């Protein structure tokens, strides 16, 4: 086939851009879905790291940080009671979730349970929240992500 002939060249000149546009439009949703799943995976990994630091804090101090002390107790010595027995830093910093939100931490105190939450992409409490911790257990008794 002679690609340099006028009719063939005109065909490709006229249809290349529309074909590329169609291919692009068909792949955008797939790319956006991958990016969204990637952010969720990053949040779950960060929450596991925070949960591991909370477990080390509890091992060192006999309980998790209070809600008032918050996750910063993993980075800086708490000044609010109860003061930890044997404080040391368990994280260099508290990361923000992939959407730029602070992780929400709550410790019930009385039954030694905590919850850790990322409000997700919509930045508010809703069904897309990512929840982890001792408070959110599945049927097998293991913490959810």
Description:
The chain is built from one helix and three strands; from the N terminus they run αβββ. The protein starts with 5 loop residues before the first helix and ends in a 13-residue tail after the last strand. It has one helix at 6-61; strands at 104-107, 114-118, 130-132. The chain is rod-shaped. The model is unreliable at 134-145 (pLDDT under 50). The protein has 145 residues and is mainly alpha-helical. A hairpin with a 6-residue loop joins strand 1 and strand 2 (114-118). 18% of the residues are buried.
Spatial order of strands in the largest sheet: 1-2-3
Most strands sheet: 3 strands, antiparallel
Order of helices and strands: HEEE
Which spans have pLDDT < 50 for at least 5 consecutive residues?
134-145
């Amino acid at each position: 086939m002679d690609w340099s002939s006028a009719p063939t060249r005109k065909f490709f000149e006229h249809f290349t851009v529309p074909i590329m546009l169609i291919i692009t439009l068909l792949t955008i949703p797939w790319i956006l879905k991958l990016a969204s799943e990637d952010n969720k995976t990053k949040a779950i990994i960060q929450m596991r790291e925070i949960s591991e630091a909370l477990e080390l804090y509890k091992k060192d101090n006999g309980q998790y940080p209070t809600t008032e002390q918050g996750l910063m107790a993993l980075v800086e010595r708490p000044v609010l009671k109860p003061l930890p027995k044997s404080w040391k830093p368990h994280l260099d910093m508290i990361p923000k979730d992939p959407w730029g939100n602070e992780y929400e931490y709550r410790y019930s105190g009385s039954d030694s349970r905590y919850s850790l939450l990322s409000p997700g992409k919509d930045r508010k409490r809703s069904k897309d929240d990512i929840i982890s911790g001792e408070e959110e257990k599945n049927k097998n008794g293991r913490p959810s992500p």
